[in-house]
């Protein structure tokens, strides 16, 4: 019975193609796919239906009707993919096709060029040289493999002090001299000589091995003499390791290349030319090609080491925990409770959610807070017929604000408090948290009214009835589910066809509702008490036993997060704690179909973070972050002495905020700390270090609200929302986040100036 069925199927496809030749390509696609689905489904489940020609004629007519419905629904309903291409709506199809083709060809050419540059240069061969120096025995070596106007990148490892302590305060240190002499000749009339002295203080206990890096400008291809001498209080020997690398591009050119790469990545993300994950991968490739071009191409092992696996492990573990947690119905239950607590009023509910998110993020990692809050917020907005995008953006903004309040709320704060040199200057956990907590409370008090002003003209409610909104979202979920199935076998093909058949049925129903629906702006529900009773019946805890297991494991994980910050005896990072918690819950929940859980993991988000780590480290290798810090220090030094502290606070605050909104705030904070310490120890500048460090912390944390990729919590929230069908773009976040960043940084700057300039809190 299958052979006549297939022949009839071909006949039906050809007939439909001729009848619908005047219709749109979308309609033909719907028809063709629907015919294939029907053929497969009836072949597998209802072979008796293929015996007659009349049944096929009837099914062809039905499929043609569904095809036309799909075309009309595509023009009436809200489709996410079309939203991403709004700027193409007014263009004709040929122009759209040309733009798309041009985009693909341009990006492909750039990728091919970067690949060629990366493959033309070998990995840097810089073997480490082991040596030992003392007060009586020094070390020297000659380098002859340099060309004109090259840079010497010198890396030294040894028992150095952890920070950038002043040399005059250190009793023991080593002195590295780099000397180059070019004799007079045809090129130069007189002998030219350059001499660099690099002093590194030593740790008194000779315990830790710390790496120091410095770049020297060479003037010619003449041999370079490097000598190392130790100045010690005794006759001990200091073990050192040293390697060198020749770079063929000036620092200014490297910074320019890094700036162009970063600008290109932002153009790809802002205008949504490609997905943000692909944009980060392209930026990483371009940055690696730039490193290869300047003679500093890293090996594959080095690139892998640049990835922050602790953050990826934290994300992966929490994604699995949340995926299992969502099976209990707990998020729906929390949404109903939040609705009941706000008594049906939207803005009190939003303020409550933002305040809770800010408080939790002060003690938990921002990523963890948003992973727990995003599903609850989405279900709550679905219950109230709200657009979840604006509510999620507000929550993640306050999450970043709250994370700045304590020493463990945001990674830049952890880096600052962990610095040993800053601890010696009085910036410990208690003093840092006390000062920042007071300032962030002031920022929060002013942020809520400003948020209400930003949302004054925003339509938080959906413009259509909840029934239509839910139906559209259901169509989107069914379609995404069908696309995720790989039709590798006959059964999987049949399931995919059934899912697409379900999509066609729902589109037909949506078409009927859209025809009869008259647009009206929804108002706040006055009959909220009755609605709560109905919602409590509908949204209940579905699996109480699994809920108890999830709450137990999640409670232990959060408790371990707290202990990790306060108890040094626990040798587990946040990533390990999240992974172990995921393993515990997988065992307790007795998960049989592991692939279902893995489908809930945001692999695109994890890959985006991995590519972003490589991109930021490559930009740091291109001297971008160091250049920003050095230029900031130069600007501070040229200011008048009586106004230097106030200008330094303002400059450090805004440079940190703007830089953190564009690049990762973790390497930026790590690079700025030694710059600010050296600046405070400069006798010509005479600035206290505390105001500068607090300005750095305030700017680095609050600057994450500037752009979508300014903070990890932003990206995680966008990824989870996209998985639920409510993804928001770079510009949607920017229109709300950047004004909030400007306002919060202004309040934070006023707080810093009032306390350090007005009240004199500098000690």
TrEMBL record:
A Gene Ontology biological process term: melanin biosynthetic process
Topology of this chain in the membrane: Multi-pass membrane protein
Protein name: OCA2 melanosomal transmembrane protein
Domain Citrate transporter-like: start-end pairs: 266-699
Residue intervals passing through the bilayer: 104-121, 215-233, 253-271, 278-294, 314-334, 346-364, 432-455, 545-563, 569-591, 603-625, 645-663, 733-754
Protein origin, superkingdom: Eukaryota
Compartment(s) of residence: Membrane
Keyword terms, alphabetized: Membrane, Transmembrane, Transmembrane helix, Transport
Major site of localization recorded for this protein: membrane
Cellular component, GO, one term: melanosome membrane
């Amino acid at each position: 019975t299958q052979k006549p069925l297939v022949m009839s199927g071909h006949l039906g496809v050809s007939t439909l193609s001729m009848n619908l030749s005047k219709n749109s390509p979308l309609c033909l696609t719907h028809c063709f796919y629907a015919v294939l689905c029907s053929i497969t489904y009836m072949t597998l489940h209802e072979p008796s239906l293929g015996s007659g020609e009349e049944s096929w004629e009837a099914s062809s007519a039905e499929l043609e009707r569904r095809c036309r419905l799909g075309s009309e629904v595509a023009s009436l309903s809200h489709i996410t993919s079309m939203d991403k291409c709004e700027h193409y709506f007014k263009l004709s199809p040929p122009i759209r096709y040309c733009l798309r083709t041009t985009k693909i060809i341009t990006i492909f050419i750039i990728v091919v060029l970067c690949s060629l540059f990366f493959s033309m240069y070998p990995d840097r061969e810089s073997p480490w040289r082991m040596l030992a120096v003392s007060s009586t025995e020094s070390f020297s070596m000659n380098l002859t493999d340099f060309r004109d106007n090259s840079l010497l990148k010198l890396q030294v490892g040894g028992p150095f002090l952890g920070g950038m302590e002043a040399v005059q305060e250190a009793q023991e240190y080593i002195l590295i001299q780099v000397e180059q002499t070019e004799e007079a000749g045809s090129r130069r009339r007189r002998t030219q000589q350059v001499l660099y002295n690099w002093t590194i203080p030593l740790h008194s206990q000779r315990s830790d091995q710390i790496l120091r890096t410095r770049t020297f400008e060479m003037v010619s291809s003449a041999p370079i003499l490097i000598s190392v001498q130790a100045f010690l209080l005794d006759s001990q020997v200091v073990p050192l390791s040293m390697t060198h690398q020749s770079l063929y591009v000036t620092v200014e050119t490297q910074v320019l290349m890094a700036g162009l790469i970063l600008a290109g990545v932002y153009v790809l993300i802002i205008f949504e030319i490609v997905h943000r994950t692909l944009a980060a991968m392209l930026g990483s490739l371009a940055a690696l090609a730039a490193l290869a071009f300047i003679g500093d191409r890293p090996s594959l092992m080095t690139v892998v080491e640049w990835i922050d696996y602790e953050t990826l492990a934290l994300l992966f573990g929490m994604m699995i925990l949340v995926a299992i947690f969502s099976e209990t119905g707990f998020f729906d239950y929390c949404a109903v409770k939040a609705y009941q607590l706000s008594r049906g009023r939207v803005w009190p509910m939003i303020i409550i959610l933002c305040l809770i998110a800010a408080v939790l993020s002060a003690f938990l990692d921002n990523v963890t807070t948003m992973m727990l809050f995003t599903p609850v917020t989405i279900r709550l907005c679905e219950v109230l017929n709200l657009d979840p995008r604006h509510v999620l953006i507000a929550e993640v903004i306050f999450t970043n604000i709250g994370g700045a309040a304590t020493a463990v709320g945001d990674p830049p704060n952890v880096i600052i408090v962990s610095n040993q040199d800053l601890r010696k200057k009085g910036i410990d956990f208690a003093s840092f948290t006390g000062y920042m907590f007071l300032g962030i409370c002031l920022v929060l008090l002013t942020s809520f009214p400003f948020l209400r002003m930003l949302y004054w003209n925003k339509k938080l409610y959906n413009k259509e009835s909840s029934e239509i909104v839910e139906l559209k979202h259901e169509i989107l979920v069914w379609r995404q589910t069908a696309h995720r199935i790989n039709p590798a076998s006959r059964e999987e093909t049949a399931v995919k066809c059934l899912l697409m058949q379900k999509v066609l049925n729902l589109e037909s129903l949506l078409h009927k509702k859209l025809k009869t629906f008259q647009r009206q702006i929804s108002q706040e529900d006055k009959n909220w008490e009755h609605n709560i009773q109905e919602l409590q019946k509908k949204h209940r805890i579905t699996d109480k036993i699994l809920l108890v297991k999830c709450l137990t494991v999640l409670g232990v994980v959060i408790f371990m997060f707290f202990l990790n910050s306060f108890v040094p005896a626990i040798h587990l990072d946040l990533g390990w704690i999240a992974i172990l918690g995921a393993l515990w819950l997988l065992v307790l929940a007795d998960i049989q179909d592991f692939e279902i859980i893995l489908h809930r993991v945001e692999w695109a988000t994890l890959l985006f973070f991995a590519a972003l780590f490589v991109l930021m480290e490559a930009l740091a290798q291109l001297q971008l972050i160091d250049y920003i810090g050095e230029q900031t220090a130069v600007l501070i030094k040229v200011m008048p002495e009586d106004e230097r502290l106030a200008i330094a606070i303002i400059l450090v605050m805004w440079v940190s905020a703007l830089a953190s909104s564009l690049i990762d705030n973790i390497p930026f904070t790590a690079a700025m700390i030694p710059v600010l310490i050296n600046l405070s120890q400069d006798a010509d500048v005479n600035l206290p270090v505390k105001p500068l460090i607090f300005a750095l912390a305030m700017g680095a944390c609050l600057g994450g609200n500037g752009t979508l990729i300014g903070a990890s919590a932003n990206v995680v929230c966008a990824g989870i929302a996209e998985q639920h069908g409510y993804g928001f773009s770079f510009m949607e976040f920017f229109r709300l986040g950047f004004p909030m960043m400007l306002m919060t940084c202004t309040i934070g700057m006023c707080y810093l100036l009032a306390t350090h300039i007005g009240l004199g809190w500098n000690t």
